[in-house]
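Hi F.,

I've been meaning to write this up properly since the lab meeting, where we talked about keeping a consistent format for the predictions we share between groups. The idea is simple: the sequence comes first, exactly as it goes in, then the structure tokens exactly as they come out, then a line or two of notes. No screenshots and no reformatting. I'm using this chain as the first example so we have something concrete to point to.
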Amino acid sequence: MLYSSRPTWWHRNHLQGWTYPSMPTKKELIYRIFRAAYPQGAFVNDDLCLTELRSKDEIWKALDAQIKEADKDINRFVDELCQQETRLRRSQEKLEAVAQYYKALLDEAFATLYNSQNQPYIQFRCMEELLIRDRHAKPRDWTRDARPGHPPPVSLPTGIEGYSYAREQLDLDLASSVPEKLRLLRLLDPVEAEKE
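Output, unedited:
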């Protein structure tokens, strides 16, 4: 099968991992959606400096456009991964699991951003800012989801409820199918299955 020479949204935004633990997380995907829409920051840049003031509607439209492009590119992205990675070529089950993981992750990121933009401006802004604060606090593993009983990567400034809201939204929803998709991927990989 011939593919377009145009890289997929996932490749352009460096989210092409297909084995655990290199699979992107919800936090990383949301950060990449923000940066794909606004390379210099929607609300704040990567140095935590405020950017130009924009309306929530303007920012949401740009983020939604990026989500739609990512969704449109998922199938081609997974097909290209299959062509590039011999371990995927040999397993239709693993290939389907990779596609399901990316689709579930994108659905969850969309829901989080959609809910966030329907909140007061400060809560929407805190979403991007908290991701950047986490990146500064733990540069190597800021994208990893906090395990139950372990503190988040960065303590939150007190008195601003937007940060608490953003932290809750960035965690995987309890009803999320993403952990199950990730567990399936780990089980399909013999090296990872031994660690289970």
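Notes:
The chain has a mean pLDDT of 83.
The CA atoms of residues 161 and 181 lie 32 Å apart.

If this format works for you, I'll send the rest the same way.

G.
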